[in-house]
Amino acid sequence: MILEGALSFLGLGIPLPEPSWGSMIAYGQQTISASPDLVLIPSAFLFATVLSLNVLGDALRERWANPMGQSR
What we know:
By secondary structure, this protein is an all-alpha fold. 64% of the residues lie in helices and 0% in strands. It has helices at residues 2-9, 21-29, 37-65. α1 packs parallel to α2 (21-29) and α2 packs antiparallel against α3. It is elongated and about 55 Å long. It starts with a helix and ends in a 7-residue tail after the last helix. The mean pLDDT is 81.
């Protein structure tokens, strides 16, 4: 997800008619002084999505690694 966002930000990802957080951030960068929400909102959603998937992955790893609920 981070790689797709970075590639789209650089213009190497999904073509423009398709929405992508990276392309939204790149578009908003041009007008960041006039309208910072065009950068902040997609950036916040990308950050929140990656963070939540990491937390979910950690919780699942802990659950499956310790099936009886024992901590390490």
